[in-house]
Amino acid sequence: MTRVLHVLDHSLPLHSGYTFRTRAIMAAQAASGLEVRGITGLRHAADGPVAEVADGLLFHRTRGEVTGPSGMREWREIGRLADAIVALARDWRPEVIHAHSPALCGLAAVRAGRALGIPVVYEIRAFWEDAAVGNGTGRAGSVKYRLTRALEDRVVDDADAVFTICHGLRDDLVDRGHAAGKIGLSPNGVDLSMFGDPPPRDEALASKLGFGAEDPVVGFIGSFYDYEGLDVLIEALPHLRERHPGARLLLVGGGPRDGMLRAQAARSPVADAIHFTGRVPHHEVERYYSLVDLLAYPRKASRLTELVTPLKPLEAMAQGKLVAASDVGGHRELIVDDETGTLFPPHDAEACADALADVLDARSAWPAMRERARVHVREKHDWARNIRRYQDVYQLLLTRAADGKLSAAA
């Protein structure tokens, strides 16, 4: 039975898109017969034991603090994580180390893999320099941006195999000069065992929010970053209500743009039709999904959104929900316009409103579109199937290791 150690920035019991993807991967691998554990770096900012079980998965924690100026501090962070990986590996003896972005995790894994003589797989979920620009904590072209990019390139060079979550990221790496044959795809996926029949409408919650039985509800459930384009969605609502006067907008979640979005909504001529819930417990999210007729994802065009595929539209499709999204690269990899969802131009509130209204008008087409979307997720984005991509690469690397042909162990 192959043992795989996943090296992570953070993990459950924290909730984020990052931790949910990790949970899905590790749970599917365990169900397939692999032995899996995770280890997190110093940025897992949550109290807990040094070895913690969450959702049936075991995660080890790297302890301690690092200090020093920027650059030196990160280098020490990498060293502390690499030492923790080696210490754990000498006890548990994994056969493969599978590191997940950011590059700090990847470099620590490569360093540990060389010390241990075992293969390292590095998986890129996003370019973190672009994510920093997207969430407002970084600037494109800055020294930190360029250094982060260079570190990513180094990890891609040094790892034995690389995965990205979408074609956009893979194509960008190939354009930088990395060998295409070294980079596989592991697209965002859904644990379909968690998605059965869509839940019935939660009438008590609908009544609490003031939603009438005939009011069409457009929703967004996620984090409120600028790149998500929720300001465009709020601007679109008055136009949508010209064709659907009872339309409501339900925004579930929170984040850096929360205050700005609430202020914009308060100024809207249809302010009473815009509903913010704040962050809700994960086990409550399904109640809000049950009220939504159409999930909207109006991401703005940027390097981040053109290259990276989001997870939320897939989860919505798996739940049998209609989806409409801006026509950016990350969405085009997930949604076929007018087949599995609807695409509209980014940054254009009126175009967004028209697309949403067209979907709401075509009620007779809803069942077929929902079914096409669910089939697409089942055939292309089911973790029970997608983990085979990893296992094929693991076996190839283990064969090479047995033959003494691993680059990282050289």
Account of the protein in words:
With 410 residues, this protein is of the alpha/beta class. It has an eight-stranded mixed sheet, sandwiched between helices. The protein folds into two domains: 3-189 and 383-402, Rossmann fold; 193-380, Glycogen Phosphorylase B (Rossmann fold, 3-Layer(aba) Sandwich). The protein has helices at residues 17-31, 72-92, 103-116, 128-134, 143-158, 167-175, 203-209, 230-243, 258-267, 285-289, 303-307, 312-318, 329-332, 349-361, 366-380, 383-402, and strands spanning 3-8, 35-40, 51-54, 57-61, 96-100, 120-124, 161-164, 183-185, 217-223, 248-254, 274-278, 294-297, 322-326, 342-344. Helix 2 packs across helix 3 (103-116), helix 3 runs parallel beside helix 5 and helix 8 (230-243) crosses helix 14.
Strand content: 15-25%
**Shape annotation:** globular
Please state the second-level CATH architecture of the largest domain.
Answer: 3-Layer(aba) Sandwich
User: What is the name of the CATH superfamily of the largest domain?
Assistant: Glycogen Phosphorylase B
Low-confidence regions: none
Q: What would you report as the Rg, rounded to the nearest angstrom?
A: 22 Å
| Total domains | 2
Could you give the order of strands across the largest sheet? 3-4-2-1-5-6-7-8
| Top CATH class of the largest domain | Alpha Beta
Helix content: 40-55%
The number of helical elements comes to 16
What does the main sheet amount to?
8 strands, mixed
By CATH, the topology of the largest domain is: Rossmann fold
**Mean pLDDT rating:** 93
What is the ordering of alpha helices and beta strands?
A: EHEEEHEHEHHEHEHEHEHEHEHHEHEHHH
Structural class: alpha/beta
Total strand segments: 14
The span between the termini is: 25 Å
